[in-house]
Amino acid sequence: MLVTGGAGFIGANFVHHTVTRRSDFEVCVLDALTYAGDRDNLKEVAHDIRFVEGNVCDTELVDRLVADADVVIHFAAESHVDNSLRDPGPFVRSNIIGTYVVLEAVRRHGRRLHHISTDEVFGDLELDADDRFTEASAYNPSSPYSATKASSDMLVRAWVRSFEVAATLSNCANNYGPYQHPEKFVPRQVTHILQGRPPRLYGTGRNAREWTHVEDHNDAVHLILEKGRIGETYLIGSGCEVTNKAMVELILELMGEPVDRYEKVPDRPGHDLRYANDSSKLRNLLGWRPRHRHLGSGLATTIDWYRENEWWWKPRKEAAELRYSELGR
Ligand code: NAD
Ligand code: DAU
Fold it and tell me: Is residue 280 domain-resident?
């Protein structure tokens, strides 16, 4: 199994999951080790995998690694919306060109591909409504990040239709869990509190997200790999939808702080209002059930992980906060 982006947050959790639960796979990770990827994230499984440092845009390297694999799980991408607003270039290169290079290699070698994507490709939903994205929702991305992920999905669909590439796709809601970069909402707030600083809430805090534990995302990916139909898309989401304000209050409460001890900061330009996925296709056809159905307990174990792994997040946080200070957020 070739795992692109396997040194990042979800990819590294996926590699841990695969190595510990699926001895039938030999795992090779291809990762460019950008600011978001680190071999530290794979330390515990370093002896069980092959690691190749390299870029998914490198046609020759990708061709060689795909030729050696039976199946490719494509996580590699630039993943942070705020960074895409500062500098979209790396997003266009890694997310669009990178996916094109992977697709051409799986086409040449006739390999099975699973493409990891996001619910952000559908744009956003109105606040205070109860509708959800489905697999049939129209693509309507808002940010450079989501536009490049939408492009990558379109390429995968076209390669399935035109070249009979054996690919499946999944679009997951917001993830949380260990090894998530402290630039992202949950680890940023948790590590702020651990440093005695108030969390930072963009705008009104009314924007809502559906939070899915990374282990549940990765269970779904294995299930799709095993039972999914070629050419199909599956939406993944826990059903745990909350406003950002409620999420900050929950984190503060779980960490024993007054729930109003947060700061409001200037909003993200073009900030998507609300995401929520209807994951009934995955639940009904493939039998997926999230293990972490209670946000409070999933968050509590995640907070413990950050409490115990300051060595991991501290240097990453310093660099991320420098980027945020330039944005005034
Ligand atoms: P991340 O930023 O933590 O990790 C991305 C990894 O990809 C890093 O290890 C990085 O070094 C690597 N990478 C980036 N560009 C590369 C390139 N050109 N060549 C090789 N490697 C490269 O991201 P994440 O949060 O783990 O997201 C992984 C995937 O899941 C992405 O495709 C993202 O769009 C998707 N996704 C993320 C979420 C979420 O909540 N984080 C939700 C749904 C979907
Ligand atoms: O929905 C899936 C997407 O979720 C993934 O495709 C992306 O890769 C992932 O980064 C995430 O995107 P978001 O933009 O939703 O996540 P982020 O963690 O950046 O922010 C979550 C929400 O919290 C969002 O409404 C912005 C807000 N926010 C974020 C930060 C970092 C704050 O209010 N304060 C903050 O400090």
Answer: yes
The answer to whether the CB of 115 falls within 8 A of the CB of 153 is yes
Question: pLDDT, tens digit, for every residue of 294-313?
Answer: 999 999 999 999 999 999 99
> Which CATH number fits the domain that encloses residue 10?
3.40.50.720
Atom of ligand 2 nearest to the CA of 81: 14
What are the pocket residues of ligand 1 if the criterion is a CB atom closer than 6 Å to any ligand atom? 4-5, 7-11, 31-34, 36-37, 55-57, 75-79, 94, 98, 116, 118, 149, 172, 174-175, 181
| pLDDT given at position 327 | 85
What's the domain count of the chain?
A: 1
Q: Which of 137, 163, 181 is nearest to 279 (CA)?
A: 137
Is the CB–ligand 2 distance for residue 100 below 6 Å?
no
Burial of 213 (0-12, 13-18, 19+ CB in 10 A): buried
Residue 34 sits in which domain range?
Answer: 2-181+212-239+274-292
